[in-house]
TrEMBL record:
Enzyme kind, highest EC tier: oxidoreductase
Protein name, UniProt field: tRNA-dihydrouridine synthase
Residues that, per the record, bind FMN: P43, M44, A45, Q102, K174, H204, G260, R261
EC number: 1.3.1.-
InterPro entries: Aldolase_TIM, DUS-like_FMN-bd, DUS_fam, tRNA-dHydroUridine_Synthase_C, tRNA_hU_synthase_CS
Domain named DUS-like FMN-binding: residues: 41-349
Organism: Thermogutta terrifontis
Task of the protein: Catalyzes the synthesis of 5,6-dihydrouridine (D), a modified base found in the D-loop of most tRNAs, via the reduction of the C5-C6 double bond in target uridines.
Length: 372
């Protein structure tokens, strides 16, 4: 195993890369876009909505934000029958750039139609195609997501069709190592994406069969990097801290790191990692009062989009991740699940944050949570 480049620092000390032969990468080019820092927010169903993206944007340090995955068929059907757009696109037109939209399907023409609309009507910065979702309703149900890793030829047709439709807007692919341990097709699929005109690949270090079990295999991600010649490879999976992000970026000589689950409990992880990449001391963790302000503002944005009932469901879902790994979090989870009024939920969170000022324990396993 490679030697770690960094260790967890003592409180208040600067953290700097110690491997002079492998300096930090401060930016990555994806098509015509220069993404700096090379830190990417993972699209996560149920979490990476407009409110969460704005929270991350306010904290800083994210190179590229991305929506939740949007069904191409759902987009077209909503438009045809009701003249409406998917809720997951709410806010995309107005939010600052760069921002990417992730789309999914197995039909090249439908994906191209939706991609064209997103470029023409929403002026998105990039389009990401989902070849990585392991959920059975997506894979076995409709043969999409990570199921497509079994068919590299179809992946190539999809990417080529979308690239021809929206060029020069960059088209990227999110994938896993393969469908099963016996079908590790990531290297082949990455080469196909490159040959089809794709601008980058994001690789999660598990197979679809693993779903959320085990640990991400970054050695396999490094093999994908070695398999392509021109396009960036961004690694993803089990990043628990800013130190993890920088270590993995440098150790495996990748072009960037995508962070998902850790950003739910530590949304400021991006600004910490960004500082480390620049050789600077990371800024301090937000105070309990500042964390509460972030939560309150996020809740207000959700209410503005969805109304109180649905916003409250989404906020509870997020809060269960946000408070994870903190002392006493189980009691608060049980408490807020029985509350329905925004002011009651916010007051419970405020009391909890002010009472638990100890650092978040990021050493716990993520096995029970949804992956990035």
């Amino acid at each position: 195993m490679p030697t770690p480049l960094m260790s967890q620092p003592a409180e208040g000390t600067a953290i700097r890369p110690t491997c002079e032969t492998n300096p930090a990468i401060l930016a990555v080019r994806i098509g015509p876009l220069e993404i700096s820092p090379p830190l990417f927010q993972a699209p996560m169903a149920g979490y990476s909505n407009y409110a969460f993206r704005q929270l991350l944007r306010r904290l800083g340090g994210v190179g590229l934000l991305c929506t939740e995955m949007v069904s191409a068929r759902g987009f077209l059907e909503l438009d045809r029958r009701y003249g409406k757009l998917p809720e997951r696109l709410w806010g995309v037109r107005e939010e600052p750039r760069p921002v990417a939209v992730q789309i999914w399907d197995n039909d090249p023409d439908k994906l191209a139609q939706v991609a064209e609309r997103l470029v023409e009507d929403f002026h998105v910065s990039a389009l990401d195609i989902n070849f990585g979702c392991p959920a059975e309703q997506i894979t076995k149900g409709v043969a999409c997501g990570a199921y497509l890793l079994k068919d590299p030829e179809l992946v190539g047709k999809i990417v080529s069709r979308v690239v021809r439709t929206v060029s020069p807007v960059p088209v990227t692919a999110k994938m896993r190592l393969g469908y099963t341990d016996h079908q590790l097709t990531a290297c082949e699929v990455a080469r196909v994406v490159e040959q089809a005109g794709g601008s980058a690949v994001f690789v999660h270090g598990r197979t679809a069969q693993q779903k959320y079990r085990g640990t991400a295999n970054w050695e396999r991600i490094a093999e994908v990097k070695a398999a392509v010649q021109r396009i960036p490879v961004i690694g993803n999976g089990d990043i628990r801290s800013a130190v993890d992000a920088v270590n993995n970026l440098q150790r495996y000589r990748l072009d960037g790191v995508m962070i998902g689950r850790a950003a739910l409990s530590r949304p400021w992880i991006f600004r910490e990692a960004s500082a480390l990449l620049a050789g600077k001391t990371p800024p301090p963790e937000p105070t309990p009062e500042e964390q509460f302000d972030l939560i309150r503002e996020q809740y207000e944005v959700l209410i503005g989009q969805f109304g109180i009932p649905k916003a409250t469901i989404l906020m509870k879902q997020f809060l269960c991740r946000f408070i994870a790994f903190r002392p006493g979090s189980k009691h608060l989870r049980v408490n807020i699940l029985h509350l329905s009024e925004p002011h009651e939920i916010l007051e419970a969170v405020r009391r909890f944050l002010l009472a638990t000022k100890s650092p978040i324990n990021v050493s716990h396993s993520f096995a029970s949570t949804r992956p990035d």
